[in-house]
Amino acid sequence: MSPAHAQLFLENFHHVATFGATDANGVDRQAATPEDKLSRDWFAHFARARGWEVRVDGIGNMFALLNWTPGAPYVVIGSHLDSQPLGGRFDGAYGVIAGLHAAAELDERVKSGSDDGSSAVPQFNLAVVNWFNEEGGRFAPSIMGSSVFAGLMDEEGMLCVKDLAGVTVREALESIGYLGTDERPEVAGYAEIHIEQGRILERENLTIGAVDYSWYTQKLDIEVLGEQSHTGATAMADRHDALVAASKLVLLVHDVTQKFDEEAIVSSVGHMTLEPNSPIVVARRVHLVADLRSASPEIVKEARASLIEDIAKIAREHDIRINVNDFDIRDIQYYPENGLELIEKAAVNLGLGVRRMRTMAGHDSVAMNRIVPTVMLFIPSVDGVSHCEREFTTDADMVSGLVTLTAVAWEMVNG
Ligand code: HGY
Ligand code: MN
Ligand code: MN
Ligand code: MN
User: Fold this and answer.
1) Looking at residue 114, what is its pLDDT?
2) Whose CA is nearest to atom 4 of ligand 1?
3) What residues does Zn(2+) 1 bind to (predicted)?
């Protein structure tokens, strides 16, 4: 890749980071918001300017299609442009913009006849994807667009999901002009590059991670139903305070990890809403979501069972109702051996340090790996920080990842 192309990639990456930019160098570009529309419009412009076909499907997934061989299926590369609220500017967006520039590089190679002597026109076409709502911050569950694409979630059901303001996915996508009807491309394989969102590559001074499996994850949707009353006039013995019960629950979700080996399981509550949320009213309802993850499904199931028991005790103690629903359950995904070897070979050829590693974070590749051969690459995160405005990855590592993705995608389109 020429230095000029690498420079253009960096300029584009930093330009997209201005869509929904926050004062502290992060982004707030949640699914189907006006800020998300800005990044989608940019994606479509980048593709159309190069003569690529742009499609939008029924759940807002966007595809840029490079039709080299009429009728051939597509190797799809990409990730997601939506972010967490007050999130990082690298999570997802890096993989989409690297995907676009890897495609531009390979398009050049195919159009000018490949420089490495392999067949000029590859066996498969190439497509770049921007998946809808990978983050699940505004609309739960997460990894929505790619899961609908992979047939793991029902499109109609997901279009009816509402955000906190009661806006449905369908209404939100219509409001930004990205509720499509285009036919989904036939996929021969999938490749995604992403920041690690952990500390391993940085600690071992490596540049590329070849993801070999993803952790088992599930969420608990919990509704605590107490009784509204006056914070001044109601005797303590007469209160059914949903927030006191919910607060005990939050600590239980954190403390359950201590029943297992250190770091064998991670869990927390990251989302909580309160009704009526007024200073002199005892809360009647609290809605919270707990996130449980482990390399061992058995450990998550054991932790869940322990929580269900404790939740029943709290409900009895406070004479309130607590409803618990499991959702967003993602089984462990193992990525194919030949894909790992592809990443390792490309990295070694480029003189980059590489190792195999798991992902604790969920990704669109977790959905795609259920239907097509899938490879997932990581580049380092400084301090391992993510889902936070302080998220950072160096330009040099981003370019190294881009060049590696380009090499891997070239192998994949040539079958
Ligand atoms: O679930 C995840 O880990 C991803 O960030 N959506
Ligand atoms: Mn992500
Ligand atoms: Mn994320
Ligand atoms: Mn909620």
Assistant:
1) 55
2) 362
3) 80, 91, 194
Q: CA 166 to CA 46: how far, in whole Å?
A: 33
CB of residue 142 inside a 6 A radius of ligand 1: yes
CA of 29 to the centre of ligand 2 (A): 13
Give the strand pairing for 208-214 and 333-334.
Answer: antiparallel
In ligand 1, which atom is closest to the CA atom of 330?
A: 1
Q: Which residues pair with 222 in a beta bridge?
A: 288, 324
The reply, when asked if residue 5 is annotated as ligand binding, is: no
Distance 80 CA to ligand 2 centre (A): 7
Please check whether residues 314 and 344 belong to one and the same domain: no
pLDDT digits (tens, 9 = 90+) for 174-212: 999 999 999 999 999 999 999 999 999 999 999 999 999
Ranges of residues in the chain whose predicted pLDDT is under 70? 114-120
CATH code where residue 236 lies = 3.30.70.360
Q: Where are the beta strands (DSSP E) in 97-207?
A: 125-131, 187-195
Do residues 202 and 259 both lie within one domain?
A: no
172 φ, ψ (degrees, to nearest 5): -65, -45
Confirm if 205 and 353 have CB atoms less than 8 A apart: yes
The CA-atom distances, in angstroms, between 358 and each of 100, 221, 387 are: 25, 26, 18
pLDDT of residue 113: 79
- pLDDT tens digits for 217-229? 999 999 999 999 9
Question: Which residues fall within 8 angstroms of residue 221, CB to CB, at 6 or more apart?
Answer: 140, 287, 289, 324, 325, 326, 327
b vs e for 318-347, b when ≥16 Cβ sit within 10 Å of the residue's Cβ? bebebebeeebebeebebeeebbebbbebb
Return the pLDDT at 121: 87
Ligand lying nearest the CA atom of residue 359: 1
Q: Which domain, by its residues, includes 162?
A: 3-215+332-414
Q: Are residues 11 and 140 in the same domain?
A: yes
Q: What are phi and psi of 161, to 5 degrees?
A: -65, 140
